[in-house]
Structure formats: structure tokens, C-alpha cells
Amino acid sequence: MHRARPAALALLAAALAACGENGPATSPRLVIAPVLDSLFVGDSLAPPLVRYFDARGDSQPTGPIQWSSSDTTVFTVNSATGAIAGAGPGAALLTARAHGLTGIAVLVVSRVLDVSLLLDTIYLMPGDTLTIAAQVRAKAGGPAAVWYRSVPNAFHTLDSSTGRDSAKAPGPAQRFIVFATLGADTVADTGATEVVQLSDTTGGKAFLSVLGTAIQRVRAGARAVNYRRDGDTLTFRVSLPVVVQGVTVENLVITLRDSINAPGTFSIDSISPTEAFGAGSDFVCRPARPWALWSIQTVPPLRALSRSGGSIRITQVVSVAHGRAVSGRFEFNGQRTDLYDDPLGALPIRGTFVAPLIADTRQTCS
Questions:
Q1: 343 partner at 20 to 30 Å CA-CA among 107, 149, 153, 279?
Q2: Cα–Cα distances in angstroms (integers) from residue 162 to residues 127, 145, 168, 207, in the given order
Q3: What is the pLDDT along the chain (366 residues), one digit of tens a residue?
């Protein structure tokens, strides 16, 4: 499996938000470029570029740099020279220290043949289908053969060659495996499918995956609402909160321009920080176009706003007690607001959900 430990995932987001390109221009800072890099187990990597900016924002000599790895089972680094060696699959932080400052980058290390599911857990309603996506990394040339396997069960079927997952009946999560073979090497990763059928407007379930420099793979709640824009018609919003001890520590919110009443595929557009958070802007009560926001309550908080080209697909809308329920999946690139002009600030985000759908026709939006 190719995973970062759960405790390290929030660290990746928090450390980069605190130590990357953040901070006012008048604050001294140490910046590593690139902020995200990768290598294979057994390979070596030259130290990345480190730049020191003084309080005026001018570039100055870095002087001696002290290097360290947050997890030496993933990669090791020579503390003096910065030479890096891949040790095992995973993701960890590369830290540079100079002038009393810290610069942070993320390194992802893969096996010479590696396969990883883009979604560890899939939530479907009976009748839904989804092709399970997996990412293969191979040091050697040539495409790897990929196939899937699950134990026969009454809840879903999985096509072994295509990864097409078909939900049949509600039930407990069912484990599946994806394999990749290249030459004499075979590797595998495991996931699970849960078929959910809501009986009323409670109990939504979701899973979302965030990759790039803020790696997150997490189960969440799910709630959808058709609500009235200020002085206008209904619009749609789905929220996927991660709640710990009654506190929302992470959330994904997708807002569309119009209400959802039937299956369909809907675009997710781009939104800037000024549009989302600027004075006088209200993209919740007056959404000019569809957009999405992912946020996590690290210190400082980290946020990513949608770029254009993404989509959300509503696969079913069904009646339940006191309202309706929807199932769907989404995929878009979020752009970290603290690295908004850096291409490496892009976060591929995707997920699946089964959510209650509430109608709120009050004259002011919630």
C-alpha cells in the first residue's frame, strides 16, 4: 500500500501552510522549491533549491543549511549536504533550517512498481455504478497490467478487468483489491465499497481524497440542500464535514448555481480568494457560478478553492421519509489559497457520497 500515516497527513498541510510561501512580504522566510517532489525506493535525489528572503523581501545567501526528514522509513537525508535517498513507500516532510527559519517540502516515495487507489472507500446507492480509479507508478518502462478482485457477495459486483463496481443491495462495507503487474513484479492496494440506502434525511456518508501537498484520505458525513438564494430561485449545496468530538475539523462544500432534482453531471468552475472571501462578496447566498471549497482546521487553517474543469455527478435522486436522498461523485482541482499562484499548490480532490437532500425554501439562504 502507498499511504501516509493519518497523523502525518495533517502535519503535511499544517507545516506547509505555516512555513511555505506564507507570511507577509516583510517577514523573513526560508522557501524550498519545489514544494512537492517524488522518487522511487532506492533512488537518490539532489537537494532542492533553498532561498532565504530577509525582512525586506530581498533574497540573501542561505548560509549553512541543516536538513532533516520527518520519517526516515520513507526517505533519509544527509543533514549537512541535503542528499536524499528513498527508503520506503509513503509521504514525508523534508525540512531545511537556516537563519533560525524553517522551510518545508513534501516528498512522495514509491516502490519501483506501485499501485494506489485514488479512493480508498466508495459509497454507492443500490443501482449505482462506478469505475474504480487506480494510479500506477513504474520505474521500468512499459505499461503495467491492472486487475481487481473482491469476494462474491450480495451487495455489489466488481468486474475484474475494468474495475467497474455495481451496487446491488445495502449492506456492510466489502473489501476489494487492485493488483498491478509488470514483468515479474506484482503489487496490490486494498479498498472497500459500502452500499448505502438512507431511510430518512439523516445518516449521510462520504469519502474524499485530497492529493498533492495536503494528502488526506478521510471518511466524512454528507448533507445536501436545495436552498433559496437571496431574492432568487433555489440552488444546491452539498457539504462533507469531518467531525471530531462535536467539532468540524475538515469540510468540503460544493455549491451549484441551480437546484438539483434529477441525475446529471454539473460543472465545477473556478473561484478566486477575493470572490470567495473578499468584502462585499457572497458566493453562498448569491453564487454567480458553481464552485467548491475544501478546508482543514490546522494551525494555521488551510483552504483550497476550485479551479475550472471539475465536475460533480448526481447519479440518483430518490424519495425517503421527510425528503429525498442523493448519491454522487465529484472530481476537481483545488488551489491552495496560500500557494494560489504556484502550480504546485494544486490539490486533486475527488470523492463519493450518499446524502440526504433537504429543501429550504425560506426567503433568505442559510
A1: 279
A2: 18, 11, 18, 22
A3: 444 333 344 445 455 555 544 444 468 999 999 989 999 999 999 999 999 999 888 999 999 999 999 999 999 999 999 999 999 999 999 999 999 999 999 999 999 999 999 999 999 999 999 999 999 999 987 899 999 999 999 999 999 999 999 999 999 999 999 999 999 999 999 999 999 999 999 999 999 999 998 889 999 999 999 998 776 778 999 999 999 999 999 999 999 999 999 999 999 999 999 999 887 777 777 888 999 999 999 878 899 999 999 999 999 999 999 999 999 999 999 999 988 988 888 999 999 999 999 998 775 565
Beta bridge partner(s), residue 236: 226
Cell 464552485 -> residue? 291
> 121-124 and 185-195: which strand pairing?
parallel
Cβ-count burial of 105 within 10 angstroms (0-12 exposed, 13-18 middle, 19+ buried)? buried
Total number of residues shown for the chain: 366
Residue 222 identity? A
Among 10, 28, 30, 32, which residue's Cα sits nearest to residue 344? 32
Cα(1)–Cα(176) distance, integer angstroms: 13
pTM: 0.88
